[in-house]
Write the structure tokens for this entry.
Amino acid sequence: IEHYGLLLTIIIYFIRLLSLLPLPLVICHTCGLILYNIFPDRPELHNSPLLGPKIRIRVVTRGDYPELVQTNVKRNLDTCAKVGLDNFQIEVVTDKPLNLHGLPANMVREVHVPSTYRTKTGALYKSRALQYALEPDVNQLSSNDYIVHLDEETLLTENSVRGILNFVNSNEYDIGQGLITYANEHIVNHITTLADSIRVGVDLGCLRFCLKQLHRPPFLFKGSFVVCRAGCEFDVTFDNGLAGSIAEDTYFAMLAMSKNKKFGWIEGEMWEKSPFTLTDFIKQRKRWLQGILLVVHDKRLPIRVRIGLGIALYSWVTLPITSLNVVLTPLCPIPLHWTLNFLIGYIGAVNIYLYIIG
């Protein structure tokens, strides 16, 4: 206080100790990276791919890039054929007609969401399309069938198809999620791809540990490579108003947790592309931030399912502030117990390591 003055001392201590906010998240990252193999062997099928429940691979798109959707649907069909998957169908839910051609009609179904369609709570965007696919006059699935959710740019791999088959045949979990990687085949933008590398580390760290050990995702959930029992979707639904319309995947997971649905980890990986430009990358992150803020502050969800997500969110929001410690630590030294210094260094080290792993 004598050296910096009372106000500046409080500010420096606040910024230093704010770095401890993501500690629960970082502990889960550490457990996921230490307890499980980072580079697992190829998943082996536990049952014949001809057996098990019906699988509906659901792709949701606005319909702006029909050629991309057509190409990826064809590639995903070929991947399923290589593994021997038989009892499945790819369903493309689109806001604009795509007129997919040259694809087997019994294997591919196009669902056009009418512009006049409104959900009961006024859900928008992707959640509106997902809810339309669940409407009784549109849905073709029974409660024990499974839905695999993909984005329009997501590609299946043979490993992920094997992992999905093992997951649904175990009949143990309501919802599952697996690893997505971004540096496959042609890389369009190296900067955004490197920036997305932390997402691979997060999948292999916290998400994998939480789904394998806690069977719930308290800190995060993605919207792609999601496998869900159809009966669970009928129960939880995507009709969650504006708060569930931007980060519909996260809202769905939090609502499912509040209904005590059981989550599991799926072996294998899927491929995606990072945003092609820095502008798209920033817009994507902005949308996630806005959507997760709505979820964290929606009082319809119990506080017990929002608290972990809140820790992850505000660790992210305050990152520009806590990053100042890189400069403040050598320039403005303060007395701090060695355990706190250790934990702050540990948190920084793990987050850097997530990029390296990715």
Remarks:
- Residues 219 and 309 are 4 Å apart (CA to CA).
- The chain is about 50% helix and 15% strand.
